[in-house]
Amino acid sequence: MKYQTIVKRKMGTISLIVILASICVATSFSVYDYINESRRLKSYFDEMTVPISKRLASSLQRPLWFMDKKIIPKLIELEAMEKSLYAVVIRDAEKQTVLFARKRDKNWKIIECDGKISGDFIVKNEDIMYEGELLGVVDIYFTTRFIEELLKNLTIDILIKISVMSFCLVAILSVVLKFYLVKPVSEVIRGLKDIAEGEGDLTRRLEIKTKDEIGVLADCFNLFIEKLRIIISQIAQNTNKLSMSSEELALLSTQMAFSVKEMNAKAETVASASREVSANVDSMASTAEQSSVSVSNIASMTEEMSSAFTQVSGLARKTADNVKQVAESGEDMSLEINQFATSLEEMTASLNEIAKNTAQASRISQNANQRTREVHVKMSALVAASKQIGKIIRIIKDIADQTNMLALNATIEAAGAGDAGKGFGVVASEVKELARQSANATDEISDQIEHIQKRTDEAVKAMEDIGKIINEITAINEMIASSVEEQTVTANEISKSVSNNAVIVKNVAKNANESAILVGEIAKSTNETSEMAKNVAQNVDELARGTRNVAKSSSDAAGGVQDISRNIQDISMASKSTAEDTSKTDLSSKKLSQMAVELSEIVKKFKL
Question: pTM above the 0.85 mark?
Answer without folding.
Answer: no
